[in-house]
C-alpha cells in the first residue's frame, strides 16, 4: 500500500521543490510513497487518504490546531525542520516522515 505524505504551506511554491527532492530520495531508496504539496486552503480536500501532514516552517504556529483536527483521524502531524526546509534536504525530510509513520 502506498503511503501518502502531504506538505502544507501558505502557497505551495517553495514546498514543491522540497517535494521533488523527497520524491527523488524515495525513488533511490525504493520507498513506495506519494508526496504532494498543497496550500493550507486545499488540505481538507486532500487529507482523507494522507498518512502524514508536514507543515512548512512558515506556518509552524498552526501546529496545535492541525494536530487537533487531524490526529484524531490517525494522521500524524509535524513541522518540517527549518534547517532541512531551508537546505531543501528532501532525504532527511522523507526520513522524518517515514519515522512518523512507524511511530
Report on the structure:
The chain is α/β, with parallel strands linked by helices and 103 residues long. The protein has one domain: Response regulator (Rossmann fold, 3-Layer(aba) Sandwich), CATH 3.40.50. The protein is 46% helix and 21% strand. It contains five helices and four strands. It has a four-stranded parallel beta sheet with strand order 2-1-3-4, sandwiched between helices. Helix 1 crosses helix 5. The longest helix has 17 residues. The radius of gyration is 12 Å and the shape is globular. The two termini are 17 Å apart. The model has no long low-confidence stretch (mean pLDDT 92).
Rg over alpha carbons: 12 Å
* CATH architecture field: 3-Layer(aba) Sandwich
What would CATH call the class? Alpha Beta
> What about the largest sheet?
4 strands, parallel
Strand order of the largest sheet: 2-1-3-4
- What would the principal axes of the Cα set say about the shape? globular
Figure out the total of helices: 5
Percent range of helical residues = 40-55%
Beta-strand content bin: 15-25%
Number of strands: 4
CATH third-tier fold name:
Rossmann fold
Query: What would you give as the CATH superfamily?
Result: Response regulator
Topology order in helix (H) and strand (E) letters: EHEHEHEHH
Low-confidence stretches: none
Amino acid at each position: 500500500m502506498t503511503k501518502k505524505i502531504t506538505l502544507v504551506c501558505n502557497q505551495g511554491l517553495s514546498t514543491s521543490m522540497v517535494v521533488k527532492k523527497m520524491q527523488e530520495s524515495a525513488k533511490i531508496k525504493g520507498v513506495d510513497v506519494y508526496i504532494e504539496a498543497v496550500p493550507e486552503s486545499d488540505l481538507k480536500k486532500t487529507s482523507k487518504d494522507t498518512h502524514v501532514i508536514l507543515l512548512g516552517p512558515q506556518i509552524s504556529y498552526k501546529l496545535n490546531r492541525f494536530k487537533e483536527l487531524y490526529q484524531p483521524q490517525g494522521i500524524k502531524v509535524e513541522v518540517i525542520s527549518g534547517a532541512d526546509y531551508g537546505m531543501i534536504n528532501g532525504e532527511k525530510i522523507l526520513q522524518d516522515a517515514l519515522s512518523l509513520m512507524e511511530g
